[in-house]
Amino acid sequence: MAADLSQIVKAYDVRGVVPDQWDESLAELFGAAFAQVTGADAIVIGHDMRPSSPGLARAFGRGAAARGADVTEIGLCSTDQLYYASGALNLPGAMFTASHNPAKYNGIKMCRAGAAPVGQDSGLADIRALVERWLDEGAPQPVETPGTITQRDTLQDYAAHLRSLVDLTSIRPLKVVVDAGNGMGGHTVPTVLAGLPIELVPMYFELDGTFPHHEANPLDPANIVDLQKRVREEGADIGIAFDGDADRCFVVDENGAPVPPSAITALVASRELAKHGGKGTIIHNLITSWSVPEVVKENGGTPVRTRVGHSFIKAEMARTGAIFGGEHSAHYYFRDFWNADTGMLAALHVLAALGGQDGPLSALVAQYDRYAASGEINSTVDDQAGRLAALKAAFEGREGVTLDELDGLTVTAADWWFNVRPSNTEPLLRLNAEARDEETVTRIRDEVLGIIRG
Predict the structure, then answer these.
(1) What does the record list as coiled-coil region(s) (predicted)?
(2) Which of 159, 216, 278, 326 is deepest in the core (most CB within 10 A)?
């Protein structure tokens, strides 16, 4: 096909509309390029429940095998299950998913052996260049001895590995509502939670890549309304929502109130630090709550602040030897999981913490949720750099205020902070603000939006 790779090769993955922007013939070229760039003798491939995923995954495997790589197909899986397979088998991997995007989209998340990320600077640009060359010149000739293609089921091993990292055997009985959003959580959750003292109330566990009930993006409040209602109706202890490829989890308490991902980051950080003798580095991005570094320090750890985005988190995890990392977007990264992100492991930590004491979840997380926050507010602007410069001019020189430009513009005072960063893909500025009380966060939010929106 006549493909424009600039439209589908993103910073960290391949993603686009099928078959308009890419199809199985292109997936086959990506498979060949992946095998050549990684130099792998063998790779592992998994896919989600989207209608186009099995065909795309098989085509990618054919391409890789034609370049001499042995291919292990693990079939239906969550993204973190693919990372598990890459780590446990020590093989480069490819996951076919478009995460929370609508049904017409699909994509490829690629990693090197041990779940090490593949992004623009770590192989993705080279893969794109090869595919573009082959689109112009024709596909390469198969090698003399092509690789084999075999199937392997890793679900039980994945579940056993997760359960080996968090002890849930002695928790009190819990009633847990899980909304899988017709995504891969419906495949993994029953196996991961099997045999535990948990009464599971499943919602939308049927695998359906057309997402008939709601988008599989739990960060959008509209997509957790059903979960919130069901938790209250059932009198459940907790509600958990997963995104489409089940690598992110979002939590609501027994009242149906959303638990901020920063509070989950702080809770899991405290548990990981306890597990490692009260020592260790915890990574957090610069728009997580002040609560996160506070809790890390209170529990003996060292917080390290980084830019937003999983490539930055994973790079810092590797550089510092961090034991855990968390983002405001509900991505959670674990050293014990090859520095990869896994919402399921974070969910197990929350269940263990909740089931290890007698109080409700709302009381448990209150100690980790200490400030008032604006949430992320997007503004469409014509001139991102100009608006950021106007913001900098407005706050520079104010008494008791510091500015930094690690990622966009962060302005910090004694009792509040805000960050404004440009989107890489859209003409947007994203605002996050936090303060010690609602009145202050509202005042700062309105002042900043007034400057951004002019």
Answers:
(1) none
(2) 216
DSSP collapsed to 3 states, 352-377 = HHHHCCCCCHHHHHHCCCCCEECCCE
Q: Give the span between the Cα atoms of 374 and 64, in whole angstroms.
A: 46
Q: Which amino acid is at 307?
A: R
Full DSSP string of 255-323: TSPEEPHHHHHHHHHHHHHHHTTT--EEEEETTS-THHHHHHHHTT-EEEEE-SSHHHHHHHHHHHT-S
For residue 20, the 8-state DSSP code is T
Whole-prediction pTM value? 0.96
Q: Are residues 166 and 277 in the same domain?
A: yes
**Together in a domain, 320 and 413:** no
d(CA 341, CA 242): 13
The tens digit of pLDDT for each residue in 348-393 reads 999 999 999 999 999 999 999 999 999 999 999 999 999 999 999 9
Residue 50 in tokens: 């989207």
Together in a domain, 362 and 223: yes
Domain count, the chain: 3
Q: Is 99 a catalytic residue?
A: yes
Tens digits of residue pLDDT in 287-334: 999 999 999 999 999 999 999 988 789 889 999 999 999 999 999 999
Report the alpha-carbon distance of residue 148 to residue 44 in Å, rounded. Answer: 12
Q: Which of 370, 405, 434 is the last residue of a domain?
A: 370
The verdict on 259 and 394 lying in the same domain is: no
Full residue range of the structural domain in which residue 440 is found:
372-453
